[in-house]
Amino acid sequence: MAVSSGYDGSGVAAPPFRVLGPLEVSGELGAVSVAPGRQEVVLGALVLELNRVVETTRLVDVIWAHDPPKTARAQVQICISRLRKALSDGGVDATIETRARGYILRAPEDATDVGNFRRLVAEAHVLARDGLKMPAVETLRSAIALWRGRCLAGVSSEVLAGTAAQWDESRLEAVESCMRLLLELGRHEHLVGELMQLVACHPLRERLRGYLMVALYRSGRQAEALDSYHQGRAMLTEELGLDPGRELRDLAQAILTDDAELALVEPAEPDEPRSLVAAPLSEAVHECSADPDPVVPPRQLPADIGDFVADDTIVSSVCDAVTEGQDKGQLNVVLVLGRPGVGKSTLARHVAHRLGTEYFPDGQLYCDLRGPGGQPVGPAQALGRFLRALGVPGQAIPDALDERAEMYRSLLAGRRILVLLDDAVSESQVLPLLPGTGSSGVLVTSRGQLTALPGTRRFDLEPLGPEQAIQLLRRIIGEHRVESEPAAARVLIRLVGGLPLALRIIGARLAARPHWSLSSMWHRLENEHRRLDELAHGELSIRASLSLSYDDLAAADRRLLSLLSLAEGTEIPSWLGAALIDDHTPHPTDLLEPLIDRRLLDITAMDQDGEFRCGLSQIVRMFAHERLPAEIPEAERAGAVQRMVGGWMALAERAHKEIYGGTYTLVAGRGERWHPPEEHVQRCLRDPLGWLESEQTNLLNAVELAARSGLDELCWELATTLVTLFEARGYPELWERTHQVALTAVQEAGNERGQAAVLGSLGTLHLYRGEHEAAGPYLSAALEIFERIGEVRGQALCLRDLARIERHHGDDDRALALYESAERNFVRAQDVIGRAYVLGEMAHITMRRADFTRTRSYLDEALGICRSAGFDRGQALALRRLGQMLMYQQRYEAAERTLLEVLAMVAASGDVVGEGYVLHDLGRVNAHLRRMEQALQYYSRSARIRERLLDHSGAAAVRADIVAILGRPMTSVG
Phi/psi of residue 442, each to 5°? Predict the structure, then answer.
């Protein structure tokens, strides 16, 4: 670690100690070298506490978070001694002094970038408070420019990581303050691009997303502002199971309604913040004249719940929807939907009580349409009850349904009555119960869609967010018990997905047993096999609630739901249901519709072609899995798993074919595929690499499921096929994870071909990481098996990679011989892309030998092969070699044109690894052309990509070229 003195991004002289990024030190004599590891950790701790004593025990902790050695204090002293020498030799204006309990780094207050950042942010706040907003913005920009990456990036210390994370958060807060001030200054149109980048980097920060929404709205882009909100909401739901916060929801509502408060006006005083809240319900009270009819108005509502908790915005919106247009005679039918246990009935009853006699003074009718024992109540029976409640004697009630409905509508005409129809099963139940005029209101809850109900306002309830869920538990068991175990409370909420019914059951059980801790309840629920048993108390039961929806399903739909519990991952693509039941329908989405209608599946996403993806909540998954043995025999379950994994294999293989122009460079296995409908496949694979990226989680789960299910052949085939994604997008850790799983599976099964394929691919992974010595044993072991079983393509792949090792060792003759052997085997295997790759590598060797005739011949042939196959990445590789050859020939302008073409290709395909290499090449070309500023820009972009991909050797090579230009490392590559 070293850096020379210079200027930081804020435009002022760089301080000697810089931690807002990788740890860097400079002095009068230039760069100061500090050994990586313990010395960096100790110095980082001292810099963060400049001019304050850092106790020795603290330094021990930051070096060894767990189990420090007995010699820890002595080793700290050694680090201090070496740091003192490094600072002194480098001419740094700072000293490390010994104190009774530790050490202190003594230096001027402006000697650290973190101190300068703190000072600039404080100055900006004072300026903003005094109304000097533009100077405040400029000061904040200077503070933010001090950052070169994450605080103490590359310094390995669990303890320091926590402090560094706090500084990273301070930077984001400064960015947010800057954006807020610029919005107040009316710079919204100029901020949209910057805010979009910030939101892309920090998609879960609601404040940044809110500023983007305001900037878009004020720029006349209302639809995009709302789209940004919906994207953020979907991401929060998918990744964290949360809804956006109240402030962001209110902002979205204000944008939707063109709230005048969003217009740019003079900002409010700091102590008078503006807020956007939902408008209160109208305070107008309808006066009702004295009714000569002595019949008591019906008041049939069940009791409201005293500890009711819900999203205030939803409650207000439902209230408004029920009462909207009442004075104009407009009948409002409001439908509250949601999965079992989400609190539909509770919310509807609360709304009905809230509106009560104020809006519906003539009465409230209520009917539980599910009925006792779960048997649906017929509309004639419900009308009979309503007519009696409205004062009609039993003997006067007609027998026919249509006559009862006519009498009911006549009695409600001109009266303001609220009708609450709870847990409706079908439209045929509800339609006869609708009033004929608009003076009344209708509130319906249902687990189904009831799409045939005319003129309805629909509200989909979601589980409670974390704060609302905590609030509900507080109200049930008391604030003290929740506050004494906050972590356990959060885990309980997560285990039940914020489902209100489940939380009420947990609360009821804890309230009945004051001696139980929340942690004890947590441990009871951890066992997935018993979780549904634990979620029952008295008449409250999650299993019973789900059973009502499950029992309503047709037999085929019950079987499908049970099988879907075998699928792992947060999302279920539409074809998966068809695979599980081996149905080759051209429209697999139709199979899932009944489950979606009953709210047992949730639609989580919709693509541009209208194809949807579903999610299965954890509780529904457990319930369905519990039903699996009774619904599906074991042999059928095994077949369903095989088809599901086979479907993922078929799609991944097809994606590879689309990218490479065929199954080239893949060792073929014999795993059985299940092929989704061709039309669906074509839609998915319009962007094959993008599809692999988007389905990454499901594909990884499929590898692990195959291993657990004894499908070793599909396991290794899928793992090795996914290298297409891992290599292009830079996922070495996933490459290793899937292959270790697959290696265990094939070794246990005695699958030689699979073992060789996985070992060879692991060897390639080590080469990808620059670990040439580690790669050799894997590749040699794989080659030995491939030669024994006669797998020619596998031999070619191993020989290709062994040649790379020889090149690394500097033995180009041996490498060329291995490449020639690999080429012959690729020809025998009819693998043209594998051969093209080898030709490109042979060209690199002959290029370095200045044999440009052979180099051009190799590259022309490789390029022709890749163009014929439609393999864009191969074309880019061959063209990059051509650009390098032109550099060797000192034809720099021609090299630049070629490499710019390559850069456009890799950027368009999302090949970030290739992008990092080509940017480095372009930097070298521009350096030769003496365009030093452009060269540094290319180098900087290349270094950032390679550091992000953990390609440390590649990043070091780029930095060496930067030093060659500047005579020192660049100060703001990160």
Answer: -130, 130
What DSSP character marks residue 93? S
Backbone angles phi, psi at 419, to 5 degrees: -110, 120
- How many residues make up the chain in this entry? 974
Tell me the HSE value of 642 on the side-chain side, using a 13 A CA sphere.
Answer: 15
Mean pLDDT, to the nearest integer, of 105-117? 90
One-letter amino acid for residue 5 of the chain: S
Model confidence band, residue 283 (pLDDT cutoffs 50, 70, 90): very low
**What is the rounded average pLDDT for all residues in the chain?**
86
Contact 677, 590 (CB under 8 A): no
Tokens of 688: 């094959």
- CA 574 from centroid of its chain's CA atoms: 20
Taking the chain, what is the end-to-end CA distance rounded to the nearest angstrom?
Answer: 14
Q: 370, 363 in Cβ contact below 8 A? A: no
Report the C-alpha gap between 315 and 956 in whole angstroms: 58
Contact 594, 585 (CB under 8 A): no
For 67, residues 6+ apart whose C-beta sits below 8 A from its C-beta are: none
CA distances from 445 to 277, 540, 700, 817 (A): 26, 19, 39, 75
Structure tokens at 534: 């634990």
CA-based torsion, 587, 591, 594, 599: positive or negative? negative
Cα separation, 452 vs 424, in Å, equals 13
Q: Compute the distance between CA of residue 698 and CA of residue 655 in angstroms, rounded to an integer.
A: 15
3 state SS for 119-157: HHHHHHHHHHHCCCHHHHHHHHHHHHHCCCCCCCECCCC
Distance, in Å, from the CA atom of 238 to the CA atom of 462, rounded to the nearest integer, reads 13
Give me the residue label for tokens 């010994």. 98
What is residue 296's DSSP assignment? P
H and E: helices and strands count for the chain? 44, 16
Which phi-psi region, left, alpha or beta, contains residue 803 (left: φ > 0; alpha: ψ -120 to 50)?
Answer: alpha
Q: Among candidates 300, 311, 374, 315, which has minimal Cα distance to 348?
A: 315
Cα distances (Å, whole numbers) of residue 235 to 142, 214, 313, 845: 32, 19, 20, 48
Using CA atoms, how far apart are residues 254 and 276, in angstroms rounded to an integer? 7
The values of phi and psi at residue 493, to 5°, are: -65, -40
Q: Name the token pair of 52.
A: 């304050």
**Residues 775-832 pLDDT 10s:** 999 999 999 999 999 999 999 999 999 999 999 999 999 999 999 999 999 999 999 9
Rounded CA gap, 716 and 622, in Å? Answer: 29
**Which amino acid, 69?**
P
User: Which residues make beta-bridge pairs with 460?
Assistant: 337
* Whether 819 contacts 841, CB under 8 Å: yes
pTM of the full structure: 0.58
Is 124 in contact with 143 (CB distance < 8 Å)?
A: yes
**Where would I find the beta strands (DSSP E) of 11-90?**
17-18, 24-27, 30-31, 54-55
Rounded to whole angstroms, how far apart are CA atoms 457 and 453? 10
Helix segments in 307-375, DSSP class H? 312-323, 344-359
C-beta of residue 802 within 8 angstroms of C-beta of residue 675? no
Q: What is the pLDDT of residues 203-224, one digit of tens each?
A: 888 899 999 999 999 988 888 8
CA angle centred on 823, ends 819 and 829, rounded to 5°? 140
Tokens for 774? Answer: 């580690």
Question: What is the arrangement of strands in the sheet containing 364-368, beginning at the earlier edge strand?
Answer: 364-368, 418-424, 441-446, 332-337, 456-460
For residue 299, give the DSSP letter: B
Give the C-alpha separation, 300 to 381, whole Å: 16
> 165: how many CB neighbours lie within 10 A of its CB?
13
95 phi and psi, to 5 degrees?
-135, 155
**Cα–Cα nearest to 841, from 795, 807, 810:** 807
d(CA 764, CA 771): 10
